[in-house]
Amino acid sequence: MDMRTEQGRPVRLEDYRPPDWLVESVELDVSLDPTATRVRAALTLRPNGNGAAPAPLMLDGEALTLRALKLDGAALPPEQFVATPDQLTIAQPPQRRFRLEIETVVDPSANTQLLGLYRSGAIYCTQCEAEGFRRITYFPDRPDVMAVYTTRIEAEKADAPVLLANGNLVASGDVPGTMRHFAVWHDPFPKPSYLFALVGGKLACVEDRFRTMSGREVTLRIYVEPGKEPRCAYAMDSLKRAMRWDETAFGREYDLDIFMIVAVSDFNMGAMENKGLNVFNDKYVLASPETATDTDFERIEAIIAHEYFHNWTGNRITCRDWFQLCLKEGLTVFRDQEFSADQRSRAVERISDVRGLRSHQFIEDAGPLAHPVRPTVYREINNFYTATVYEKGAEVVRMLTHLLGPENFLKGMNLYFARHDGDAATIEQFVQCFADVSGADLTQFMLWYSQAGTPEVVATGRYDARAKTYRLDLAQSVPATPGQPSKEPMVVPLAVGLVGRDGRDLPLKLGAGRAIEHGVLILTEPADTFVFADVGEPPVLSLNRGFSAPIKLGANLCADDLRFLAAHDADPFNRWQALQTLATRLLVDNTAAMRANGAARQDPGLLAALGAVLADGTLEPAFVALALTLPGEADIAREIARDVDPDAVFAARRGLQAAVGEHLAEPLLDHYRRLSESGPYEPDAVSAGRRTLRNTCLDLLAATQRADAILLAARQYQAANNMTDRMAALSTLSLCDVPERAAALDDFYARYADDALIVDKWLTLQATIPEPATLDRVKALTKHPAFSFANPNRVRALIHAFALANQKEFNRADGAGYDFIVDTVLALDPKNPQVAARLLSALKSWRVLEPGRRARAEAALRRVAAAPSLSPDVSDIAQRALAKD
Ligand SMILES: [Zn+2]
């Protein structure tokens, strides 16, 4: 990768050195004040290692003002240290254990980056991952420095009646003679500074209890804005289920007396796993049938679980350095996906996860921002909280289950927990545990962590009736990515089935003395041939079942084979995949036809296959809904891969939706009616599945733009007794330029104007309408009283939604979409660089566009790159997006 930059030196994995100084304990005394919060930090430091050359002490800071400095109780003379806003250096510290007392003052109200100590409304809160702690006090702010924290917080009682920090509460009371009070929290588990958290404010709380598997009682508390307590029930229920699941699935028990979640409305991310005190974006805590959709409920369940699971994978065992981010994130995403699969439907969860992977990570992997699951260089770590680190990182862990089998996988996890508890670990140490329990050589497997790009596997199968063999030729390649022009072959676990005429799997037996374990072929060479013996009839190949490897697969399956698999494959993932492949082939063809002003081709076989899935009463409704959902515009564009015209992609997809709605009108309407429910809303997976299918039917019917279908949507909007059905109807209507749409949008705002999280849905819907007026509408909405550039949720709901979920209008041929995004990035950057950089990364696929749009997107990116005083976050994205390799 070309790392020539004006500012910010790149950090490289190869330069890692253990810290010169360790911190045994941190005593913090934080006196909260809106503009001048005083932080006293007493660190007990000791040299790391065996008394080699005396090392200076260099502590990280960012925008800090030092007020006082004492060493072992005595003020340090000014000539013995240098304090800048970004660093505190003591050139000749004593080469022994000593105590350093540092007093700094920070202004939480002026902190618009939302990193460090800041205010969300009137609430004080912190966000320290990745490098936010250095904005609170000077500290060796790196994850391999793990210390025991004791935190005293003091504040005006009236301003902040609730004072929280990590660990267990050990003391609290009034400060005599003042209107102030204090609380002291102690966390006995050594932790890196990024897991520190502190909260103060007027918060209401919902409390519950949990008895762990060894019989310990844990208090559970969720803190929210007063009045929002009734909306915490689902989050609390999810938390208890997650705690139980981690005990049964991985033998992991919670370790403190109390577990707390605080919901705040200004938050850069989804949530943060601070030890014992998770801080959440309120969007992922608050839910009621009237305010949240099924998707919201599902997300809440998954994110509550994800952050809770970090207590072991992330907190008890943390990362040695930020290059190892996937060690905690990939593994924890894998664990939360498994949790959701067990709570809901394994097949539906898997399909949903793969859809997400393909439409985010595969696209990232194919563009200029591609990077390995474990990067080796970064300029701004905030830019590596990516789909590659999270979602592909989870797939890499999942592959271990296919390569080694579920039992060895669990043994490896147990060894990892036992061997590394309390460590700041590396990917090598993690993978070594699996090698040790299984005896497998995982050297080649490590390439999944170091090679970027989505591997492509081509499969060609041939049946020999005389020899009764099925010969499968496999060839793999990994495309070039920035900084990695040529690649080594990967180890690719491919779950396989040979499906017989009656739809049942034929027995798998490899010839030539080769064995097949757990139904998985393991491809390790650039090309290999597997010959199955004793195959009594010509089978249909079902490969990469359950998406056992995160690859792009090309197989010589004809339309008849795909329709057969769609109807019969024992693997539900590949049933779904067969329909997607059929639809993708048609949509790619039709996109080309649209560009040539030709007429779209119809595929009666695909329509019949979709009809058959709809008619199959044995399938779960949530699966049928996924089967009826066509590949997204981004997926089609990814398949086309060059000279993409987003208007043509949109037209092809919308045309096929209308064809499905037309062709299956009767059964769709029949399902729509049959699936209607009159009882109270229940958020469980089965009920949610029925609603999803019903709303998918409605959407396909309305794609025809027929008046009766639009009437149906308008009626559903009015009659809905829950947010899922109301939003689904409104979303369907929003795609049709009819008077009902404006009326419903106005009505929606009037109903929910005082609920910011619901107004976000209203903003998103309007940003994603695929019509030319949308850009002006989005611009106008930035002036709406409900909108604020200071709140990341509002910005994401309106502007990120426009850039990421409205391919057609963001990629307007006149470039006005790019210009708007770039203007917004430049305006946001000085205030919140993280959110600005995320937004700019919406341009990551610019190179695949047709020449006109490509030139406009490039010009927009160049305008950012040339702007003065960019944050490292935004400048890094702009430079990488434009880099030539
Ligand atoms: Zn995480």
Task: Write up what this structure looks like.
- The chain has 885 residues and is an alpha+beta fold.
- It is built from 27 helices and 31 strands.
- The strands form eight sheets. It has an eight-stranded mixed β-sheet with strand order 6-5-9-3-2-12-15-14, with no helix packed on it.
- The radius of gyration is 28 Å and the shape is globular.
- The termini are close together.
- The chain binds zinc ion.
- The site of zinc ion (ZN) has 4 residues, from helix 3.
Summarize the SSE layout with pairings:
Blueprint (H helix, E strand, L loop, with lengths): L10 E2 L8 E11 L5 E11 L9 E4 L4 E7 L2 E2 L6 E3 L2 E4 L7 E9 L9 E5 L2 E5 L19 E10 L5 E4 L2 E7 L5 E12 L6 E4 L2 E8 L5 E8 L8 H18 L7 E7 L6 E2 L4 E5 L12 H16 L8 E2 L5 H19 L2 H20 L11 E2 L8 H18 L1 H15 L3 E2 L1 H12 L8 H4 L5 E9 L4 E9 L14 E8 L20 E4 L3 E6 L7 E4 L8 E4 L3 H10 L3 H24 L8 H12 L5 H8 L4 H8 L5 H18 L1 H10 L10 H19 L3 H13 L3 H12 L4 H14 L3 H12 L6 H8 L10 H14 L1 H4 L5 H13 L4 H8 L10 H16 L5 H11 L3
Parallel strand pairs: 2-12, 18-19, 19-21, 22-24, 25-31
Antiparallel strand pairs: 1-23, 2-3, 3-9, 4-8, 5-6, 5-9, 7-8, 10-11, 11-16, 12-15, 13-16, 14-15, 17-18, 20-21, 25-26, 26-29, 27-28, 27-30
Helix pairs in contact: 1-2, 2-3, 3-4, 3-5, 4-5, 5-6, 6-7, 9-10, 9-11, 10-14, 12-16, 14-16, 15-16, 16-17, 16-18, 17-18, 19-20, 20-22, 24-25, 24-26, 25-27, 26-27
Bound molecules: zinc ion.
